Amino acid sequence: MINKLEIREMTADHIDGVMIVENLSFKIPWSRQAFVDEITANDMAVYFVALCEGQVIGYGGMWKILNEGHITNIAVHPEFRRCGAASGIIETILETSGEKGVKSLTLEVRKSNIAAQSLYKKYGFKPEGTRKGYYSDTGEDALIMWKNGI
């Protein structure tokens, strides 16, 4: 665990740090504008950052669509992985989902990302299907996971 880990709602002030984590985490990263649009113009979206001593070390977000939620992304800076940041983000998303009337949450995860799958299973997500060739960078399949009864 990280000392002094804070989870806060993402603001424009966090975008520079989010972009560092994004670029270190994904071969095809979201653009800066995509994150700005998510937090300023998408009424369905809510995003959080994990902070350690004021530095963005991770982030995650979800869309609320009626009574369902879709976790769009969760990423943690490589130097801070396996330190509790992703768990803090997931716990905050689950808490926020309940407050917003979300009854079930879904997400996609690379079939090869066993560590992430294990983390999601820890929080009650279950594999429910596959999206063939979902990831455009490699053509890898995505495992679709759901958590019901939020």
Automatic annotation (TrEMBL):
The top EC class is: transferase
**Which CDD domains would you find in this protein's record?**
NAT_SF (cd04301)
InterPro entries, per database record:
AcTrfase_RimI/Ard1, Acyl_CoA_acyltransferase, GNAT_dom, YpeA/RimI_acetyltransf
Localization of this protein: Cytoplasm
The terms describing its cellular component in GO are: cytoplasm
What Gene Ontology molecular-function terms does this entry list? protein-N-terminal-alanine acetyltransferase activity
- Keywords for the protein's UniProt record, in alphabetical order: Acyltransferase, Cytoplasm, Transferase
Location of the N-acetyltransferase domain:
5-150
- Principal location listed in the UniProt entry: cytoplasm
Name of one Pfam family that matches = Acetyltransf_1
Record field: catalytic activity: N-terminal L-alanyl-[ribosomal protein bS18] + acetyl-CoA = N-terminal N(alpha)-acetyl-L-alanyl-[ribosomal protein bS18] + CoA + H(+)
Signal peptide range equals none
Checking SUPFAM superfamilies in the record gives: Acyl-CoA N-acyltransferases (Nat) (SSF55729)
Q: Does the keyword Calcium apply?
A: no
EC code(s) of this entry: 2.3.1.266
NCBIfam families reported for this sequence: rimI
Classification via PANTHER family? ACETYLTRANSFERASE (PTHR43420), ACETYLTRANSFERASE YPEA (PTHR43420:SF44)
Q: State its role.
A: Acetylates the N-terminal alanine of ribosomal protein bS18.
Give the family per the record: Belongs to the acetyltransferase family. RimI subfamily.
Name of the protein:
[Ribosomal protein bS18]-alanine N-acetyltransferase
**Which species does this protein come from?**
Ruminiclostridium cellulolyticum (strain ATCC 35319 / DSM 5812 / JCM 6584 / H10)
